[in-house]
Amino acid sequence: MSDDTDRAPAGEAWPFQEARKILARLAARPKKEVFFETGYGPSGLPHIGTFGEVQRVSMVRQAFRELAPDVATRLVAFSDDMDGLRKVPGNIPNQEMVAKHLGKPLTSIPDPFGKFESFGHHNNAMLRDFLDRFGIQYEFRSATDQYKRGIFDATLLKVLAHHDEIAAVVLPTLGAERKETYSPILPISPKTGRVLQVQLVERNVDAGTVVFRDEDGTLTELPVTGGHVKMQWKCDWAMRWAAFDVDFEMSGKDLIDSVKLSSKIVRVLGSEPPIAPIVELFLDENGEKISKSRGNGLTIEEWLKYASTESLGMFMFHAPQRAKKLYFDVIPKNVDDYLGQLAAYRDQDTTARKQNPVWFIHQGKPPVEDVPVTFGLLLNLVAAANTDDPKVLWGFVSRYAPKATPAANPILNRLVGYAITYYRDFVLPQKKHRAPADQERAALEDLVRTLEALPTGADAEAIQNQVYEVGKRHGFANLRDWFKAMYETLFGQSAGPRMGSFIALYGVPETITLVRRALAGELVGEAA
């Protein structure tokens, strides 16, 4: 194990920085296995933030394994599926049926989709499918299973013994009405099956039981073991930390106070809280927090319709402590960021490679493939070629990069398909070509003459330089205005590709034809 447990080298990737904190913790509290955990409340369909938490913790685990290869690790994705459903999510079918079961554990509510044993089982299966699709190594644990099998029994008896101390931690955070009935232990009614937030009439530490008034008013005694009770969720979190001796768990900014409270409760139970870094939230395009019950923001399925799992991994890797908007416009940038890092990886030394996001995304084994075309460039190629036929697009690509083929370049081949789908659904509906202004018209006419005069085989850099010179000759004070004019008149968009690369890919004769169509007004109003 490294002695350098708390000094991160300059520029070290954030997963290694977190891993060094775990090394320092291990030096103070030696143990044979480091326990990484992520928590999921399946009261609604799992959203992309849920997946992101697991992937980020997995990245920290990977960094830790690199620093301490001889120390065993375990990553548990825990589902709090015994929680009582408090409201019906707005993005599920059969809402009236689900409403009849409010208050019951999620694993006791029928699946509104009609596919699984319960609503909890359905949502758990969705989460596991996502994690499996991304190749994340993890162990899944269900609260219902853990409670009923007695895994938490010893810790639950500790909770019962320290009930008043735990309540003293929580009560200052509650309103006056809730204080009257609060208990960290929530009995599950044997008559209705609902998780009850009721005052406990008696607590029998020696017998390991609690007495409460059931919903029909009858006094009822239940053991706290064997799945007969459920911990209130903040206390449940702490109980789980103590029971599993969790070393590391990340959580969102909205849970800062909960982390502090749960950490205090863990110490009441005689254990040490985990390292619990706070990460910023994912926001929808309106800047609002994405929510399982509302279903706002981008879903995992939606992202994977338009881009690869690796590009989503890139989005998750970057700046976890900065709030990020999660909507369709961020996809192309993350695809190209991923491609850029993959290309850089080939020429990096071993040290630099382990700081590269693709090392984390691919668990240390990134693919080796030259991807000569960016996603952004492909989107513009689809627009200019006016086709959704992959074979036609590959014709342009093969001319630009003769060694590239669908079989030899699987990443690029998938990108072609993604570009067609993304362009059709998001770019095409927003396209709006405009006619060039007088200055722009003169520059575009000059561009045609310049392209006609290019030597055969001119590369992207040579073409780019000539495009710059055209803009300079026609008095564009800011050359960005010249490029914007090309984007708006040729592509119907306010942003676009590096023109030299685009022209080299699309072809000089084809670009000349495109510019002439713009000059003739044939593109104005074209959106389909």
Question: Summary?
Answer:
Strand 1 (33-40), helix 2 and strand 2 form a beta-alpha-beta unit. Among the domains are: 375-430; 438-519, Arc Repressor Mutant, subunit A, CATH 1.10.10. The strands form five sheets. It has a three-stranded parallel β-sheet with strand order 1-2-3.
Q: Secondary-structure blueprint of this entry?
A:
Layout: H1 14-28, E1 33-40, H2 48-67, E2 72-79, H3 95-99, H4 119-133, E3 139-142, H5 143-148, H6 153-161, H7 163-170, H8 176-181, E4 185-187, E5 200-204, E6 209-213, E7 219-223, E8 229-231, H9 233-244, E9 251-252, H10 256-268, E10 278-279, E11 282-283, H11 300-306, H12 309-317, E12 324-325, H13 331-346, H14 350-353, H15 357-361, H16 375-385, H17 390-400, H18 410-427, H19 438-452, H20 460-473, H21 479-491, H22 499-506, H23 508-519
Parallel strand pairs: 1-2, 2-3, 9-10, 11-12
Antiparallel strand pairs: 4-8, 5-6, 6-7
What does the model show?
The protein has 528 residues and is mainly alpha-helical. Among the domains are: 375-430; 438-519, Arc Repressor Mutant, subunit A (Orthogonal Bundle). The chain contains 23 helices and 12 strands. The chain has helices at 14-28, 48-67, 95-99, 119-133, 143-148, 153-161, 163-170, 176-181, 233-244, 256-268, 300-306, 309-317, 331-346, 350-353, 357-361, 375-385, 390-400, 410-427, 438-452, 460-473, 479-491, 499-506, 508-519, and strands at residues 33-40, 72-79, 139-142, 185-187, 200-204, 209-213, 219-223, 229-231, 251-252, 278-279, 282-283, 324-325. Strands 1-2-3 form a 3-stranded parallel sheet. Strand 5 (200-204) and strand 6 (209-213) form a beta hairpin. Helix 1 (14-28) crosses helix 2 (48-67) and helix 19 (438-452) runs antiparallel to helix 20 (460-473). The longest helix has 20 residues, at 48-67. Mean pLDDT is 92; it is low at 1-6.
